[in-house]
Amino acid sequence: MNRLPFLIPVLVVIGTAEPAGAQSPPTEPRIEFNASGGGDGTSGSGPVTVSGKIILPPGWKLSIHTLTIRYKKPGGAATLNAFLPVKGPEFKATINITSGSYQVWAVIDVKDAEGRERQISSPVQSVTVQ
Q1: How much is the pLDDT for 129?
Q2: CATH of the domain at 85
């Protein structure tokens, strides 16, 4: 009985596995994003602070240097857009908006090494302004 044919697939699978803890560099651009709301509950408006970082793998670059921060009430169709110029990978801004609950995210245009453009966005976060 020859067992060699059964061992070859096992060796191939074992040989291609990455060691635990090894991370490859990101291949897709992304936005790391944090949002927090505030307010004192008496003025009818308050600040929302957003911060984060734009991660561009090698070969990618910004198409425009303006980050759009979008604010939307849950269930609503309209967004309030704030524009933030970016000069480096990190950003931070604060905007005062009326009290309420909001979904907040960031959007920017990037292009790859061949010049193909696309829009990337951060995950949506919920904030409350009191």
Answers
A1: 95
A2: 2.60.40.10
